[in-house]
Structures are given as structure tokens and as C-alpha cells.
Amino acid sequence: MSAFLRRFMRNQAAFAGLLVLLAIVAVAIAGPSLFLHAGPFELAGPPFSPPFGRYPLGTDMLGRNELAGLVYGARTSLLIGLAATLFATLLGVVTGGLAGYYGGALDHALMRVTEMFQTIPSFLFAILVVAILSPSIRTVILAIAIVSWPPMARLVRGEFRSLRNREFVQACIAMGMSDTRVILLHVLPNCVSSIIVTGSLLVATAILTESALSFLGLSDPNVMSWGFMVGAARDFLQRAWWLCAIPGVAILVTVLAINLVGDGLNDALNPRLRH
Amino acid sequence: MSVARDRARYIGWRLAQAVPTLLLIVTLNFLLVHLAPGNAADVLAGEAGSATPQYMAFLRHEFGLDQPLYVQYLDYLRNVVSLDLGYSFREGMPVRDLIATRLGPTLLLMGTTIVLSIGLGVLFGLLAGTRPNSLRDNVISVFALVSYATPLFWVGLMLIVLFAIELRWLPTSGMVNIAAFYTGWAKAGDIARHLVLPAITLSLFYMALYVRLMRASILEQRGMDYVVTARSKGLTERAITYRHVLRNASLPIVTMAGVQIGNLLGGSVVVETVFGWPGIGLLAYKALFARDLNLLLGVFFVAACLVIVVNIVVDVIYTMLDPRIGLR
What we know:
A: mainly alpha; elongated; B: mainly alpha; two-stranded antiparallel sheet
């Protein structure tokens, strides 16, 4: 563990990404009670107040506090990014694990399904799912998870396949251990590092997907989100371009930070793969 | 001659393989409509409440909602197979015709994006990978890292602010200047001017992806035995890079380009929406806005078909680039 931490800390970009990410998480959790007096949908002042005046980031076209939108949007992005990734990871680990461990016809069938899901234009499918099931936090999470599990399934399948033939796993099977025990106690723990790396990058993709969905108007109407803020301010681009610019920067910084952390985890957890 | 026959057989085999995928998509469409809260006719008519009684009756008839579920499914399947994607009352046109008129602009945008993102991605990846950890590499890598994390719609809007609103160099939206009535080359030039910003927006993310991939691929190839051999027989670094490394390192890019086609179509929904580019992405957005879900289902189906076709084309190209990979 300490060797892992040392390797991770040595990677300056990953460390910087981690600090930024922790700051965003802290603001998302504590922001509303520390420095916000009103929710993101409440009117705070005159519309189109420019940034750096009475309101730190100005107000939007309806006079809502842009900073409040940003803070509550962080909650939405992080929540959806994490939940969708957990769900996709679960789907991917179960599918990939069964395919990789048992092989044969089951493997063939499951991998065909995975391939099909990879062929489907994923963002369009996500749009369809959210549009038909009507937009809410739950349907957005479901839609993102459904389109993002295949890479995880392929990764887990590969790991399971190679671990299945390793001596220590063969020994467990020879000892008469049940499949469930072998998988949960011996095979799965050996893939955790790869799953974490892929999962961390999935969080970044999920946040980007969520922002694009909410930009198109497919977000929970009761929850503030960064993509929704950009989409709503789009019609006022000529008059107040910063209303589009600010939430976009928030998305960019968050996704960049997560990607840096993911790359850092990859380098630290799989030192063999480094060039 | 036999290569041509092999190729034809390969394409036929791949098309046959695509059938289950299309079946899955049709099934997913069907399931989604029936899983949705409320009656399928309500879902398809939308929640706007503006559906006329005739439209509802038409939908009930089209989806045979009085029939048992498996009959409904088989009917739906038969319609799709005969390329009958239904009728859009909002647009007053059959869905199939509506999509057909929008396919051209989307293909133009996608084609330009593929050429631009692969071309620049390979170039910058090569520049970065041949001199790792230099200033040049760092600048390119940081640029790729940032582009990779930027939402497409935001890039589009910021480009509009800069180049269309502030500098007034390029048009903000659309594909042609309707007021100008250009013909011939002037029209092509007009379309090209409208294409610049959407193509750059859509390319940026994929270019970043290819730069990262190409850089890693170059680094990997440079350690291979054949490079050592080439160096020991006295080839210049330049010759090694361009004659040997570049070709081998480009293969993963072709693979990735095939994988990304579906995502590219998803991205074009966002980009076409931002720039008012009249392709199937904008059609999907309008369908979404009008809650014309039948049209949305049609766009999704056609997009999936497009992905399958492009993937087959990519695989054929792949076998041409690398003869070691046989046509199975």
C-alpha cells in the first residue's frame, strides 16, 4: 500500500488532479451550508449581473445565482458519475466474470451480447432511454450505465480468463472449493486494481455523458446540473457568453482531474505496463 | 480475381453477422416503448398533449396495441424489415423519407471529422511520440489531455462566441446561406464555410484520442526488434520513422476509428444541435423537443445501421493495410 502511495504521489499530474478533485468534492458537500443562502433555482438578484460584482459569478438570465448553480451542479455530476459507474461496473463484472471464468458457450453468448452493445450508437441510445422513461436522476443513471458497461465486461473477462488457468486458482479448484468461493476470494481480488483504473476513467466519461444529456434538456427538472446551465444559457450567447462558459469550465476541470487521477492510478497499480 | 471474391464473401458474412445486432436494436426499441410508464400510444404521441385523436388511432393501429404482445412484436419487426419506420405527424412526412433527406449533411460532417481527426491525430501523435518528454511532446500531450476532457457542446459554443460573434469570420449556424441562392462552386464554398466550426468541434475530442493512442503506439513500436535491425543496417531515424514505424503504429488508429463511429454519431447530435447543422443529429434533437418518439426510434435504428456498414468498410480497409490479417 505504501509503495502504491509513493508511486502515485511521485506522479505530479495525478497528485494535482487528486487535490483538485478533493476540492470539488469538498465544495459539493459543504458548499451549500457554508456560503450559500439559497438553492440553485431561487432568484437571487437582477438577471445578467456580470461576474465579479455583487455575485461572485454573476446571475443568469432569470437572476439565479450562478455560483449556487455551480455548487449544486457539482453534486449532481459527481453523484451521477459515481452511481452510473458503480452500476456499469456491476454489470460489467458479472457479465465479464461469468464469461471469462466459465468460458465455452456461455462466454461466446455473453461476448456476442457485449459486442452488440458496443456497436449500438451509445449516446443516441442513452437519449432514447431517458426520453422514453422520462428524465430523472434514476433514468439518467440507468441510461449511462447501460451504455458504458461493455469495456468493463471485456476487461474483466480477459483478466478472469488468464487467472482461471493460473496455478493458485487451479489448486483451489482441485481442493474442491466451490466456484463462488474461488471467484469471490481468489480471482476477483486479483482484478480489483484493473477494475479501479477502468472505473475511474468511466466516471469521467459518465460525467461528460450526463452533461451532454442535460445540455439537450434530458435532466431531472428538479436538480441543477452543469450541462443544463449551459443549455439554458445558450440562447443568450451574444448577450452573456460567460453564462455558457463558466459551467463548461467546471465540467472540463472535473473531468480533467478525474482523468489525471485515473492515469496516475494506472501507472501506480500496474507498474509493469509503464514505458 | 480470387481476392475480390474473398472480399465479397467476407462482406456477405459480415452482413449476416449484423442481423442479430439489428434484431437486438429493434427489440430494444420495442421494449423501451412498452416499458415506458403508461400506454405505448401515449408514449409515442408524446406528453405535450397535442396529439389529435386521429394520430392516437393511427398509433394504436400501427403498433396493433389491441393485439397480444408477441403479435405486436412480430408486426413491428415486419415493418422495420420492410423499411417502414412509420409516419411523423409533427413533420408531416414518413420517417424514412425524413431521415433520407438528412443523411447527406451528417455523412459530410462525419467524413470531414474522420479525415481531420485521424490526419491531425496521427501527425501530432507522431510528433509527440518521436521525441518523448521534449517540450514539443509536452505541449501536444497537454493539449490532447485538455481536449479529451472538454464537452463537445461547450467547445462548439465557445468557437461560436470567438469566430462567429466576436470576429465575424464564420457563420454561426446552418449549412447554407439561404438568402444568397449560391450555385455551383460558390455553393460548395458556402457549405465549406459553414462546415468549418462544426467539423473542428467534433474533431477535437477524437483527435485528442488518436494523439494519445498514436503516441503510445509509436513509443511501443520504437522498442521493437525490427527498429533495432533497421537502425543497425544504417537507416536514418527519419527513414525508420516514416517507412517502418509509422505504418505499424497506425494500425491501432484504424481499429479505434471503427470503434468510435457509433460515438461519433452520438457526438454529432450535440454538434448539429449547437450549430443547427441539418443532419440526422439535429433531426433527433427536434424529435426529442417535439416528443416525436417514433421519429427518434427511427433515427436510432438508421444510425445503428450506419455504424454497422461503416464498421464493415473499416475492416475491409484494415485487411488492405495489413495483409497478415486474412479475410475470414
